[in-house]
């Protein structure tokens, strides 16, 4: 007997095995296009087994922060705090920033709203940057922008965000910019640091195709970064994350080639979507958002072909697709979308 598909969208991308339990006849291996993670995996050199037989050294952690500061354009490693993934740092934000209200430019990554709701703050979601600007002057407000935005790939100019940060600071507030995808698209606000009203988040795993490493960064004034490090505590990340970060963040050549490869893959994906009459939007290279009233049915159709994509309870007409990682994945996606197109009215 075939199991029914999940009744609700997952809270995040990934969790492919949990989803595919509902589709036992789907071909394997499952293809995960639900996350927007770079399908190119950084070819890190693994540390020796003895590295894991001791605790990380303080100078290794300092060296990781130096590598991150140089890679992201921060003028001082003291402006960098590390954590086991940027999500862990998002969860810390209500302890770093005193705010009774969080204004989030959405629709966007749900982790930000959840963190502030759990802290007891009032969460306001706005869809227009002018609304965000107005809210930034309200006392006790933190403003949050994902740039590029997830899931629709919206990119705001850095100059506009700098104005938001200045406005927030002039009213004793903060702007948090989540730059999880900025390694591939958009202009970073990190060169504006240190700034009294600005905190920037960066994701390592999405860029380098190593999400299981669990490594993320918070960049801010040295004072806020130190408070973050104190909250995270000793040994903020493990030896594997230290090794991966110290290697990859210094490998600019690999990152430049990865950007070029992602650009070609994004062009290929959008061409396939257009060939099958699927409307898409967004400028982010690592993913695209499909808009169709039949999104729930398309999601099921792709799952039955062993392809996991990301659907959204708040946007029932939307489906996010990441980039396939090899020719086998491209061929299966091509076949599945053309089969969908052939049976569409």
UniProtKB/TrEMBL annotation:
What is the top EC class of this enzyme, as a single word? lyase
Q: Which Pfam families match?
A: Aminotran_1_2
Question: Would you tell me the protein name for this molecule?
Answer: threonine-phosphate decarboxylase
One Gene Ontology molecular-function label: threonine-phosphate decarboxylase activity
GO BP: cobalamin biosynthetic process
- Whose protein is this, by species? Gluconacetobacter tumulicola
Instruction: Kindly state which keywords UniProt assigns to this record, in alphabetical order.
Output: Cobalamin biosynthesis, Lyase, Pyridoxal phosphate
Domain Aminotransferase class I/classII large span(s) in chain numbering: 50-328
Q: In which pathway does it act?
A: Cofactor biosynthesis; adenosylcobalamin biosynthesis
Tell me the SUPFAM superfamilies matching this sequence. Answer: PLP-dependent transferases (SSF53383)
Q: Which CDD domains match?
A: AAT_like (cd00609)
Essential cofactor(s): pyridoxal 5'-phosphate
Q: What is its EC number?
A: 4.1.1.81
Q: Which InterPro entries match?
A: Aminotransferase_I/II_large, CobD, NHTrfase_class1_PyrdxlP-BS, PyrdxlP-dep_Trfase, PyrdxlP-dep_Trfase_major, PyrdxlP-dep_Trfase_small
Give the protein's function.
Answer: Decarboxylates L-threonine-O-3-phosphate to yield (R)-1-amino-2-propanol O-2-phosphate, the precursor for the linkage between the nucleotide loop and the corrin ring in cobalamin.
